[in-house]
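Moderator note: this is an archived Q&A kept for reference. The question asked for a predicted structure of one protein chain; the sequence and the answer are reproduced below.
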Amino acid sequence: MDLKERLDTVHQRMCAGSRTASRDLFLAALDPLEGFLARKFPSLSPEDRHDLATDAILIYSAEPAKCDTDKSSLWSYLCRIVNADAIDLLRTRTNRGALLAKNVRTDVEFWASRSKDVFRGEDAIDARHIMKLYGNKLATNDIEVRVLSLILNDEKKTSAFAKALGLDPDAPDIEKIVKQTKDRILLRMRRLRDEL
């Protein structure tokens, strides 16, 4: 019995509610799906291939009735899932890679002098380009635009941020208010970065 026939048999068992069918599906389909990905997308790592193949099997297992083996085999169905997910993964990495590749040396030098509580780790490398391209999503009003400008200009003084916020630099809890504003913008940056 070839792979397509074996998988279609497993599909029938899945639809009938067999308790062991999902285990048999993993045993029969995981390695072939990883092999399919290796041939079609050689740039994917073994971990990526494994994760994508596992996800495809889990997606199918959640709703096996969505696969109509009268129209195409379970193998074709699983291949369509991993193919689409691999394309999405590579597209996301390409977009992110292109964004990060621009002037990385300049960014590293620029953000290397940052204090550790403003930008950390990977945030430091891509922050400047993200702000250039997506600043309107990071700053929702003129005050936040001024705060972004100070961050980009390497400002460290709480008093400067307080003035940008229109607050008295000597007011009680001013450091906390400034930190909350900067953290809010950083959180938006992380969310945006994760979408790219």
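Archived answer notes: Confidence is low (pLDDT under 50) at residues 103-126.
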